[in-house]
Amino acid sequence: MFKEINLRNHSSLHKLFYSLVNYHSVLGIIVSAIMTIYSGIASIEQLTKMHNRKREVPISKVYLEVQAALNLLFIMLTFLPLGKYLFPFIENQSIMFFMTTLFLAGILLCVWSEYRIHQIMNDQDRYHKVIETFKKHQQ
Questions:
Q1: What is the Cα–Cα distance from 68 to 76, expressed in whole angstroms?
Q2: What are phi and psi for residue 126, nearest 5 degrees?
Q3: Using CA atoms, how far apart are residues 59 and 10, in angstroms rounded to an integer?
Q4: Contacts of 69 (CB under 8 A, 6+ apart)
Q5: DSSP per residue, 88-137
Q6: pTM of this prediction?
Q7: Inter-residue contact 38 to 66 (CB < 8 Å)
Q8: CA 64, CA 68: separation in Å to the nearest integer?
């Protein structure tokens, strides 16, 4: 069905891209599918905030915590033999460190998003004053 490509003479980045396109790790596909569905649910929760003025976003908070935990787990698995099964495209140290950097960036984004949610829930958001002023002038 798919044409085999000889990757021997290609760059590591090309090999990484080709491996991502032909990803065959069942565990990786299942985890990706679950997290994609969960992120969709969290996104819908965020969209409902346009009509619902409650500050709580419990689904999004749990999603961010799970995502950060998975990224941390993936960093550890990257350096273990099981990582070769989950990430078959990691062939050398440079790809391993590239993936680790991506996972760390994901963790930082999760922590930053959690912090922003905390600020909003405690009326410490920088836009809170603007919103309150707008509400006063609207009445």
A1: 13
A2: -70, -20
A3: 43
A4: none
A5: TT--SHHHHHHHHHHHHHHHHHHHHHHHHHHHHHTT--TTHHHHHHHHHH
A6: 0.72
A7: yes
A8: 6
Question: Helix (H, G, I), strand (E, B), or coil: what is residue 73?
Answer: helix
With a cut of 70, say whether residue 49 has pLDDT above it: yes
The Cα angle at residue 98 between residues 89 and 72, in degrees rounded to 5 = 90
Tens digits of per-residue pLDDT, 50-108?
A: 787 777 888 999 999 999 999 999 999 999 888 887 887 788 888 899 999 999 999 99
Q: State the Cα–Cα distance between residues 94 and 101, nearest whole angstrom.
A: 10
Rounded to the nearest 10°, the torsion over CA 100, 74, 104, 63 is 160
Phi, psi (5° rounding) for residue 103?
-65, -40
